[in-house]
Write a structure and sequence with these properties.
The chain is of the alpha+beta class. The chain contains 7 helices and 4 strands.
Length: 216
C-alpha cells in the first residue's frame, strides 16, 4: 500500500475478530518501529508482545474500564529505557527525547499495520505502575503506550480534520498569508463556503420537489 494511502486510511479500532495475527506481520510492524528516528540514534524502545488471552484480560483491567481491549488478539506494550537518553541528554532526554523517539516508532508501526490489512489502537490511558508490575517491567524502564492489534470487527467512523489553513503559520506563530488555503492546495474552506451559500437554494428546490410529489 502507498504510504500516503496508509496515512489516510489508518483508523483506531476498538472491536476485533477472534482471529490471530500472523507473526510475520507482527515482525514487519516491529521492524518498521525500529526504523523510526530517535535522538542520537539511541533507539530506546523495547516491545512486549502480549498474546495470551488471560494476560490480555489482566492488561485491560488496568486500563480505566476500557474493556474492549479484551477483544484484541495482540497487545504491544511499547517501552523505553529513559536512562539511556538521560546519559546522553540529561533531564531533557529522559523527559522529552525518549517520548518523541518512542512516539515515532509507534506511528511507524500503526501505518505498517494499516498497510498489512490490520487495525490498531494507540492506548495511552492505563495505570502505569500496575501495568509495569503485571508485565514485570524494570523500574528504570517506562511503558509509554499499549497498542492493540488485530483484524477489525467494526468499521471505524470517518474522522473530521481541521483544514490546513487553520493550523499552518509562516515564520512566527499566528502569522498567516492571504489565501493560504490555495498555497496549501486545501480547498475545503472554499467548498464549505459554496455549500453554505448554496444551501438556501437547495432547500427551496427540495421543498418544490416535495410539493410536486404531494400534488401527484
Amino acid at each position: 500500500m502507498d504510504i500516503f494511502k496508509a496515512v489516510q486510511e489508518r483508523r483506531s479500532c476498538r472491536k476485533y475478530l477472534e482471529k490471530p495475527v500472523e507473526f510475520e506481520k507482527v515482525t514487519l510492524m516491529l521492524e518498521a518501529g525500529t526504523h523510526a528516528p530517535s535522538a542520537g540514534n539511541i533507539q530506546p524502545w523495547k516491545y512486549i508482545l502480549v498474546n495470551d488471552k488471560g494476560s490480555i484480560s489482566k492488561v485491560a483491567s488496568h486500563c480505566f474500564q476500557q474493556y474492549w481491549i479484551e477483544s484484541a488478539p495482540l497487545i504491544i506494550a511499547v517501552c523505553s529505557c529513559c536512562e539511556k537518553m538521560g546519559m546522553h541528554y540529561g533531564e531533557r532526554g529522559m523527559r522529552l527525547y525518549s517520548i518523541q523517539s518512542v512516539a515515532a516508532a509507534i506511528e511507524n508501526m500503526l501505518l505498517t499495520a494499516t498497510g498489512l490489512g490490520l487495525t490498531t489502537c494507540w492506548v495511552g490511558a492505563f495505570e502505569d505502575e500496575k501495568i509495569k508490575t503485571l508485565l514485570k517491567v524494570p523500574a528504570n524502564v517506562n511503558v509509554h503506550a499499549l497498542i492493540t492489534v488485530g483484524y477489525p470487527d467494526e468499521k471505524p467512523k470517518e474522522k473530521n480534520f481541521v483544514p490546513l489553513s487553520s493550523c499552518v503559520f509562516f515564520n512566527t506563530y499566528g502569522m498567516k498569508i492571504k489565501h493560504l488555503n490555495r498555497v496549501l492546495n486545501d480547498y475545503s474552506v472554499v467548498v464549505d463556503k459554496y455549500i453554505e451559500q448554496a444551501q438556501p437554494v437547495l432547500d427551496k428546490l427540495l421543498n418544490k420537489l416535495k410539493n410536486l410529489g404531494k400534488k401527484k
